[in-house]
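Worked problem 6 (solution included).
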Amino acid sequence: MSSESVGGICGVIVAAIVLAAAIVFGPIGQYGKPPKPAKVEPAPSAMAPAAPAAPAPRGPVIREVPNQ
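Solution. The predicted structure is:
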C-alpha cells in the first residue's frame, strides 16, 4: 500500500467525521434558531413631546481665494 492511498483513506475518514459533526451540530448562526422576540416600545403619544434638535455645529468655512 503506497503512502498516497493511505493518505487518501485518512482524508476520507477525516472528511466523513467533519461531515457527521456538521450534521449533528446543525447550522451555525441564526439559521435554525427561533426568532428573537421583538421589543415592545411605548407609543410615542405616551411620551412627552421631544424638543426640536439643535443644528449640528459647523466647522470653519474654507473658500477659495483667487490669485492676484
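Discussion: The chain has a mean pLDDT of 78.
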